[in-house]
Structure formats: structure tokens, C-alpha cells
Amino acid sequence: MADMLRFVERPQAYPAKRDAEARAEDFREIAERYAVQSAEDQSARCSQCGVPYCSVHCPLHNHIPDWLRLTAQGRLREAYELSNATSTMPEICGRICPQDRLCEGNCVIEFTGHGAVTIGSVEKFVTDKAWEEGWVEPLVPGPARGQSVGVIGAGPAGLSAAEYLRGHGYEVHVYDRHDRAGGLLTYGIPGFKLEKPVVTRRVDRLKAGGIVFHEGFAVGEDATLDELRSRHDAVLIATGVYKARAIEVDGHDAAGVVAALDYLTASNRKSFGDQVPEFEDGSLNAAGKHVVVIGGGDTAMDCVRTAIRQGARSVKCLYRRDRANMPGSQREVANAEEEGVEFVWLSAPAAFVADGDRVTHVRANRMRLGSADASGRRAPEVDPGAAEDMPADLVIKALGFDAEDLPHLWDAPELGVTRWGTVLVDAKTLMTSLDGVFAAGDIVRGASLVVWAIRDGRDVSAAMHKYLKAKAANTKVAA
């Protein structure tokens, strides 16, 4: 175990971040990448725990201590291969996973006060190095099985499942209503967290491996679910959840009150060079405006930091709990504060005040934390006192996402859903109420993390492989 357990003599050091003022001028990723020696030095801080809590708390159960040791020893290709063995998108997870809540937040060294091993930054470094050196191998399909799979949704769950299924030898078709694959990786997450060529090269690799993408294909319009079932031996629903949660206060329908995903999609499309009329006319453009974002999750952080880069006059984030109880990454909050965002804690909208039909102010109630709710978090309640008015030309609702009404949209009333609208699946087989139709990712678990979507894609591909093998065997017997 050469040159490990160096956490006492070597302080924690993340890759340098670009100056806040400079990075607020563009959509490039804010952190530089490790030099080789720095990556090796930081990896050597790992204590090589007998019970690696970093791996335990990683949804993918990545072999983190093992590839840290290989990195510390300069065996970078082996480190990449081990990292890639459990994840279809390690460099994407290295960029956008909330490591402070998962692997790094549960690092034993963090508990000793020496600062966690910088796992995410090393993961990003190792996989980017693999792309540069040509170590990322093409997707090679297994022997053809004569069966096909349709995957609805080209987000992380769908792409992950498609890759594994193609590796098993199935013909795989991916259907997505957007004109580019990637789902939220492409259109929801800003470039300063995930530059788009990082996503594109993954998709290109899948296309080169024979996976057929049907982009701009809306199930329910271009084909019903039943029609897709007739084309394929099995179908996977991996649409994610996109329906914005509403704010039921006066003025919620005023012009200038917009949904977070609409706002982020417009910005990302603009970065691709697309024509975006809603951006050009100012409807989804923060330039020169007083911007108020409602919410405290990672989507809210994406919105406030995008508004800064678009040249907003001011940017405030309203969250009904305090900083310690917000769901978003604390690192993202710190990045936003560095870039000029003002956080208004314990504050919630009481009304959106409009002049005519256009919003001009947000009237916000001051909040306080009461007794704990069912989740164990202290529930916010209105603190009796004067509401505060703050100027707002653009209000962005970032309160999370719910499932769309797929049975209605897809003319599939027999598709079982939960009371939250998410697709109901059998816990063991991951199959829906329809034979041969599976579901995975956020459309099953609700809005969650990309790393969980990748895990779900991996799990459902194994379940589908088992189903398809049995189906093929039964067909042979019947013949």
C-alpha cells in the first residue's frame, strides 16, 4: 500500500477555482483540473478503510479506495478501468454529484478534521485523462440476440440502461422528445457545472456502438406506447420528471413568473447556438433584471448562477428554511455567494405583485422553523410580522418537479402510477403493470440525483436482460 494514508502531512486541496468575477462572465466550468502530481498526492491521502463509507454511501457503490490507490501509484489507466467498471458516466458524476452529501461527506478522514479526500475531483481527472489518452474503449455489442428494446427517454437512466443492454447484444432504440440526447444533462444543467461536450462525447460513443436514437420523437404524438410495444420485445420508460411544481399565491400567472426548467433550457439552447425566441425577447433572459429565484435545491442554484452570467441587475434566492436545512449542495451555495447572489433565508413568497400583467415585486413573508415534520426536518411557518417587498422583473420557480400524466399523454390508461403520478413498478422485477414494460430513474423514484438515475439504469438493464432471456427461451419452446 505504497504512499497511502498521507492525510496528516498533506492538506486537502481541491483544484483551483477561477476567480469569481471572471467566471461569472462565461459558462465554462469554474474549476481547473488537477495536474497529474496533484491528483496522485490527493489520492494518497486516502486511509484505505476496512469499511469504506465512501463506497457505502455512493449509490453506485464505486470501488473508490481501490481506484484512489491506483491513482496515487500513477496507475491511471487501471484507475480509470476500475472506476468505469461500476459507472457508465464517471466523469459526469465527478462533476455534478453532491459529493459533500455522499462519498466525501462520509469520508472517515473528514470525521477526523483533516478534510475529506477529494474523490469527485480525482474521478473527473482520471476519466478526462482516459478520454485524452484513448483509454475509453468503444461500446462493443454482444452477439446479436434477435430481440429489440425501446428506451423512452435519453437522460442518464435511459442512456445507462441502453449501454448495458447493447452490451448484452440487443438492438436498442432510444426515443426522446428533445432534438439532442442527454435529458437534463444537456438542457437542465448549466455549462459551468457540466460543459456540454462532456455529454456529447458519451452520446456519440453510444451511437457509434449501434444504439439508434430517435430524437424529436414524442411518445403520445409520434407513436403511442402500445405502438412502441409492438415494435420491441421490451420497453423501458425513463422519461424523468419535468412538471414544475406550482406556487399557489396571488400573481403566480403574471408575465415574468417562469418555471426553472424553461429558463435553464433556453439558456442551454442559446449556448448551443440555437434560435431561442423567448431568450431574444427577454422572457427567459435575466439581462438587466432584478431576479428572484424561489427554492433551495440544486436547480435553484443553477438558476441564480445562470442569472448572474446573463448580466442580471440583482439576484436573490428565497428559501423558506435556513441555510443548515436547505436541500441543495452547500458548495453550490458558496459558489453562488462568491459570484454575487444574495440569499434570503427563512423567506417565502406571499404574492407576486404585478403592474398590469407583468410582475414588478415579490412580497415575501418572513418564516421561522417550527416542530419537525414527517421527514424529521423542522417545518417552516409564517413569522407574524410585516411582509417584505423586493423588486423583481423575473421570478423563477425552482420548487422541484413532479411526474407528468403519462397514462393520459400516452393513451395508456392501464399503465399503473402511484398517488404522486410516478410509474408503479414491481420491486423485484422493475416491471410496470404492463407486461414487458419497465421503468427506472426519476419517473419511478421522483426527482432525485443523476447518480441514482445511473444506478437505476444499471439495475433495470439487468432485470430486462433476465426477462428477455426468458422470453426468448419460451419462444423456442413454443416453436
TrEMBL record:
Residues 149-457 form the FAD/NAD(P)-binding domain. Keywords: 4Fe-4S, Iron, Iron-sulfur, Metal-binding, Oxidoreductase. It comes from the Bacteria. One of its GO terms (molecular function) is 4 iron, 4 sulfur cluster binding. Residues 23-134 form the Dihydroprymidine dehydrogenase domain. InterPro entries: DPD_II, FAD/NAD-bd_sf, FAD/NAD-binding_dom, GltD-like, Helical_ferredxn. Pfam families: Fer4_20, Pyr_redox_2. NCBIfam families: gltD_gamma_fam (TIGR01318). This is Glutamate synthase (NADPH) small subunit. It comes from Sphingomonas palmae.
